[in-house]
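[Automated response] Your request has been received and processed.

Submitted sequence:
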Amino acid sequence: HIGPSPTFGQQFPRVEAHLLNYDGSLYGRPLEIEFIERVRGVQHFENVDCLKSQLARDVEVTHEIARKFG
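Generated structure:
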């Protein structure tokens, strides 16, 4: 995610990365991210549960995209 977090009232842009199928710690280590396809734009959600549901759908879409670039 790149941008604000309107669901939480945060208007300043930030970058968040969700690493699929990774179990470990990367704190304090450099990380390079390559963008290959946009999943969706910034949205405001009514509550955290709605956001979590959308994130689950985003993960499914991301897995589909990753399979194309396998």
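Summary generated for your ticket: The chain has a mean pLDDT of 93. The chain is about 30% helix and 15% strand.
If you did not submit this request, please reply to this message.
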